[in-house]
């Protein structure tokens, strides 16, 4: 194993450690929403500092490897992908903080019942992030594509969750502010799934050398943006 390969393995361990921190903070944030637990919410907010520090360390390590070794081919793709994944993980950490802050506000405002779709959506979203990180470790394009496919299910759960919250809003206008906070949580979770998708796309770039995002549609109708009846 060359010195560069050893450094790349070290970098992989660093980004996985960051991923573990992010996953744990996200788990606590979701739990804080589900149980109206202010202590867990505050733990998430305090823990974000460590995530930010680790994110900077990973980026600095990537830049050092680029400068010292001038890597090519798969090594170069790996480092570039890690730089982007590092940023995605930091954003996931920020969204976990946003969810935790809403948990604090909800606990003070009114303990809105957690819609069933929110719990299901949270589980699917966390699974997507976990599998995206697994795909990174194993450099597995098959697992990465499974993450991309799972995004459709999360989008459907998001639509279902919005409908449940609208029904709750119509039935309980007295607690409008609290229900609006829950709408915010739903939006954060939908964005979390998007970040998991972005990580999976970077893994595909790393493994296959092709940029999979922003692919052009296959048909002229799609190019016009009218293939979906809702767009007409």
Provide the residue-averaged pLDDT: 88
DSSP strand tally: 0
**Residues in helix, %:** over 70%
What is the string of SSEs from the N terminus onward? HHHHHHH
Name the quaternary structure. Answer: single chain
* CATH architecture assignment name: Up-down Bundle
Q: Tell me the count of domains.
A: 1
Radius of gyration: 20 Å
Structural class: mainly alpha
> CATH topology, which one?
Methane Monooxygenase Hydroxylase, Chain G, domain 1
CATH superfamily: Phosphate transport system protein phou homolog 2, domain 2
Shape: elongated
- What amount of the residues lies in strands? under 5%
Main pleated-sheet profile? none
Residue windows where pLDDT falls under 50 for at least 5 positions: 216-232
Instruction: Using the coordinates above, name the CATH class.
Output: Mainly Alpha
Distance between the termini: 57 Å
The count of helical stretches stands at 7
Description of the structure:
The protein has helices at 3-35, 38-69, 73-109, 116-138, 141-171, 176-208, 220-223. It is mainly α and 232 residues long. The protein has a single domain (3-210), classed as Methane Monooxygenase Hydroxylase, Chain G, domain 1 (Up-down Bundle), CATH 1.20.58.220.
Descriptive terms for the model:
232 residues; mainly alpha; Methane Monooxygenase Hydroxylase, Chain G, domain 1; disordered C terminus
Care to give the gist of this entry?
With 232 residues, the chain is an all-alpha fold. It is 83% helix and 0% strand.
Write the SSE topology:
Layout: H1 3-35, H2 38-69, H3 73-109, H4 116-138, H5 141-171, H6 176-208, H7 220-223
Helix pairs in contact: 1-2, 1-3, 1-4, 2-3, 3-6, 4-5, 4-6, 5-6
